[in-house]
Design brief:
- The complex is a heterodimer.
- Chain A is mainly α.
- Chain A is built from 15 helices and no strands.
- In chain A, helix 4 (73-104) packs across helix 8 (156-168).
- Chain A is flat, with a radius of gyration of 25 Å.
- Chain B is mainly α.
- Chain B has a single domain (62-299), classed as MetI-like fold (Orthogonal Bundle), CATH 1.10.3720.10.
- Chain B has 12 helices and no strands.
- Chain B has helices spanning 4-42, 60-67, 69-102, 106-121, 124-134, 141-148, 160-188, 192-200, 205-233, 237-243, 254-263, 268-299.
- Chain B is globular and about 75 Å long.
- Chain B starts with a helix and ends with a helix.
- The chains are: A mainly alpha, B mainly alpha.
- At the A-B interface, helix 1, helix 4, helix 5, helix 6 and helix 11 of A face helix 1, helix 4, helix 5, helix 6 and helix 7 of B.
């Protein structure tokens, strides 16, 4: 009886410790974001004050108007939206037919094409950027948004993933549709696409997040301020006239983080599953 | 076996296949195959970023980087970073995943997972800027906490001896949630019957972990380590935003070196030669990855 009681007590302690530890972990991962937001609404004196205040004494929303004044952040935002959305939409036009072709057609050179897709997944931007920079410089397109869009619409990961999905669709389903005299287009849109919807959503989410967050590529491909995307513009905040004005820098940072954070809060589970899938494929 | 009446539709099928594949194939050739070839070709020339003129110099660019002490340091830094990052991330990810997997507080676990994973979807620029602020030597939050506890200030990113470690910590914070998810997915594949058998044998928890869980998930862990290493070679964003390779090249890594040679020193030939070194590293690791993934299939 006594050992039984003791077990219950130990169990309770373990549970409380578990909850406590989990709370600490949550704080470790959320606090930096909280600190970013809190700093963004403090005035400079309070932002640098010792000891730091966890809750701002007064709210200074004018930091946000300030950051819009010192840098053309609306322009950056617009560029980011244009690039992310264009890549998102255009890639479907390229990768869906490509994946269909890989999974359902027989032709010479298919293996070679599949090899290309694998190579595309293997070679990172950090290897191709200089030649691509020269290429766009040669055709005088460096002062446009095209270098930020064109290299990403033939998304090899997307082709690979969709191909796996299409291949899982039983041949009988397609044969049945063919017997009904359905055209290739119809089979594509009425049969294949609906069945591959999870893959299409996953590809879209991952592509949007990675394009929105991409810093390296736009940093290299854009030299004029009017073409910068948000990550490049916000990173430049800390070295411009706002040097050490952490409240202003954080306000810019919030503008960069917020859209993705909202998407993540809405579709947290879906996004986590997408990343897990892409990691263990 | 081809039947005659089928050959017409077969031809159409072939043609359609080629037509639908070609846009993607052409784009991949332009933006992957050609750049790789051109990178190797361009590494044999000198010249500048702005003019198209260049001169064949053979392996001079390679000689230059391999004689450059900074480049040696950069290679060592990249390897140190990779080992520290992958080691720390994987150990933490395994601990957290096994811990979450063993406790039955579903809602809370889901919240922990969601929070740990958040930094992974956030731009590296944002994360770098926030940590630059938190780690600010004088007015940053971390040092304010340390001084108020009566401890010495920590130099974080501002000293050559601590900058690399700080960089690794930021990257681990950003990425560990992703690897927790991967390890948890691997844990799901371990059949419950094995654990039940272990329980019947009264095996202790640590024994179960080391004798069952770890061996069962180790192929996946190994595979993940290789993939994480390839990703680590490419570190750039955090370096460029937080340290610019400094102080005294203590966080200068391969991609930053390539970038700096091309766009700071305006010497694309040398940058391409260093790019070829990165290419070789990625190829070797991808070869290892395929070997490991064959193993993974074998174990399952």
């Amino acid at each position: 009886m006594q050992t039984y009681d003791r077990d219950i007590i130990i169990n309770k302690i373990v549970r409380v410790l578990n909850v406590l530890l989990k709370a600490i972990v949550i704080v470790i991962f959320i606090f930096p974001f909280y600190w970013m937001v809190v700093t963004s609404v403090k005035d400079l004196a309070e932002a640098l004050q010792f000891p730091p205040t966890l809750i701002p004494a007064s709210l200074h929303w004018e930091n946000y108007t300030h950051v819009f004044e010192v840098v053309p952040i609306t322009q950056y935002f617009r560029n980011s939206v244009i690039v992310s959305v264009t890549v998102l939409v255009l890639q479907y036009l390229i990768i869906v037919p490509a994946a269909y072709s890989l999974s359902r057609h027989k032709y010479r050179g298919k293996k070679l094409f599949f090899g290309l897709v694998l190579l595309g997944q293997m070679i990172p931007q950090q290897i191709t950027f200089l030649p691509v920079y020269f290429m766009f410089s040669k055709v005088k397109l460096l002062n446009t948004l095209l270098p930020l869009i064109l290299p990403f619409i033939s998304n090899p990961f997307g082709i690979f993933m969709l191909r796996q999905y299409f291949m899982q669709i039983p041949q009988e389903v397609i044969e049945a549709a063919k017997l009904d005299d359905a055209s290739n287009m119809k089979i594509m849109f009425r049969v294949m696409m609906p069945m591959a919807k999870p893959a299409l959503v996953t590809i879209g989410l991952l592509s949007f997040i990675s394009t929105w967050n991409n810093y390296f590529w736009p940093l290299i491909m854009t030299s004029s301020e009017s073409l910068r995307t948000l990550p490049v513009g916000v990173a430049a905040l800390k070295s411009s006239e706002t040097l050490q004005m952490w409240n202003i820098i954080m306000a810019g940072n919030v503008v960069l983080v917020l859209p993705i954070l909202i998407v993540y809060i809405i579709a947290s589970k879906k996004i986590r599953n997408s990343f897990t899938y892409s990691g263990i494929k | 076996m081809k039947k005659k009446e089928r050959s017409a539709s077969g031809k159409r099928d072939r043609l359609l296949g080629i037509v639908t594949a070609s846009p993607a194939a052409i784009l991949l050739c332009i933006f992957t195959v050609y750049p790789v070839i051109y990178l190797i070709y361009r590494s044999l020339f000198s010249g500048s970023l702005i003019s198209a003129e260049k001169e064949f110099v053979g392996i001079d660019n390679y000689r230059e980087i391999f004689l450059d002490e900074t480049f040696h340091k950069v290679l060592v830094n990249t390897i140190i970073y990779t080992v520290l990052f992958v080691g720390l991330t994987m150990v933490l990810a395994i601990i957290i995943a096994v811990w979450l997997n063993s406790s039955h507080q579903k809602k809370l676990n889901n919240m922990v997972e969601a929070c740990i994973f958040t930094p992974h979807v956030i731009s590296m620029v944002s994360v770098s800027i926030v940590f630059l602020w938190l780690m600010e030597p004088d007015t940053g939050f971390f040092n304010m906490v340390l001084t108020s506890l009566g401890l010495d200030k920590f130099a974080f990113l501002s000293s050559p001896s601590t900058a690399m470690l700080s960089l690794v910590l930021v990257m681990v914070w950003k990425s560990v949630g992703y690897y927790v998810l991967l390890v948890m997915a691997a844990l799901q594949t371990v059949p419950a019957s094995i654990y039940e058998a272990a329980e019947l044998d009264n095996a202790s928890k640590s024994r179960t972990f080391f004798k069952i869980t770890l061996p069962m998930i180790s192929p996946t862990i190994l595979f993940t380590c290789v993939v994480a290493s390839i990703a680590s070679f490419r570190i750039f964003d955090a370096v460029n935003v937080m340290t610019q390779g400094g102080p005294v090249d203590s966080t200068n890594t391969l991609v930053y070196y390539i970038y700096a040679y091309a766009f700071r020193y305006g010497n694309p030939g040398v940058a391409c030669a260093a790019g070829v070194v990165l290419l070789v590293l990625v190829c070797v690791m991808t070869y290892v990855q395929f070997g490991v993934s064959r193993n993974k299939v074998h174990y399952q």
